Structure formats: C-alpha cells, structure tokens
Amino acid sequence: MNDKKAFVVSYLDDLIETISELDTGALTRAVMTLREARDRGSQVFVCGNGGSASTASHMVVDLLKGASYGRTRRFRIIGLSDSIATITAYANDVDYDRIFVEQLRNFAAPGDILVALSGSGTSKNVIEAVEYANGAGLTTIGLTTGLGGRLREISRLPIAVPSSHMGRLEDCFLIAVHVMCYAFMDDETF
User: What angle do CA 57, 59, 64 make, to 5 degrees?
Assistant: First the structure.
C-alpha cells in the first residue's frame, strides 16, 4: 500500500510542479484573444486527437454553453474533432491528415481563432490545420509540450507545458482550457 501511495504522491507532486511552471502571460493573452474574437463575432475552432480531442470538446461546451448561455455576448465555437461522420469521411476518402484542415477550408475566415491541442506537438493533422490557419489569417493558439514538436514553433500563441509525460500534459491542457473558459464564466468583466 505504501508503494502505491508513493506513486500517487509522486504523480501529484510532479503535476503541481508542472502547473506552477505554466506561462500565465500566455494564458492571459489567450483569454484576451478569445474575448476579442467573441466581441467581434469571429468563429473559434478547436481540434486535437485522442485525449486532446476530448479536451477540445470540453472547451467547446464550456464556451458555447457555460460562457454564452443567458449572455448578450456569445461565443461562436466549433469542435473540429466532434463530427465523427465528417472525420471518417475525410479519413477514408482523402487522408487522415486532412480531417481538420478541410473543415477549416469550409468555415474559417480571417480574424477567426484556431485552438490546436497536441501532446507530442507533431500530430500531422493538427500541424496541417495550424499551417493553413496561419496562412488564412487566423490567430492560432497551440497547447502542446514545451519540450519539442512543431506545434509550439508554428502557433502564433503557444501555451507550452514543460513536460513530455502525456498524463501531465493532458492534465495541464484541461487546466489551461478551464482558465480560458472560466475567465468568462466567473469574471463579469470579461
């Protein structure tokens, strides 16, 4: 039992240390970027694979409902990971690497926002979406590892988690998403 408890304590200690190293300036800039997009009626897109897709969907729910319901200023947000029919059609008929970028080609406009999540920072479908978004005049926010990967390099606003441990990365992605969303849900000044 003590060795199991030691694992739990160690995991949580490492997570607390990782959280304490998150770039609060980058998170603040992300909140302000989302606020500006909401206020001008721009679209927000979010994408990721696996656990990052789940976190992307969580962000959609928090901004679409939690930060918009009953309010005059509302978010326009779409999860590019959420339509399984669209994803599987592109994956089957075109290429899995195109599942996000092709959706952006249909909906994105200059001034919109793309929030991209990738623990490795190398997911080809995420990278293609960010490269397209950068070229199409979107602001790109990348949640990724601070220890490498292309996503950190190409995102206009990287939020880099200083870890390569997938569990701690995903824990911090959710915390970063909650910071970005709860800024609007808990603070009336936003």
Answer: 95
Strand, coil or helix: 145: strand
Question: Using one digit for the tens of pLDDT, what is the confidence trace for 55-102?
Answer: 999 999 999 999 999 999 999 999 999 999 999 999 999 999 999 999
Which CATH class for the 2-186 domain? alpha beta
Its pTM stands at 0.96
66-75 contact pairs (CB < 8 A, 24+)? 66/181, 66/184, 66/185, 67/181, 67/184, 67/185, 73/38, 73/39, 74/38, 75/34, 75/37, 75/38, 75/44, 75/184
Rounded to whole angstroms, how far apart are CA atoms 177 and 158?
A: 13
For residues 106 and 136, what is the distance between their CA atoms, to the nearest angstrom? 12
For 22-50, the pLDDT digits (tens) are 999 999 999 999 999 999 999 999 999 99
User: Are 147 and 161 contacting, i.e. CB atoms less than 8 angstroms apart?
Assistant: no
Q: The tokens of 189 are what?
A: 């000044």
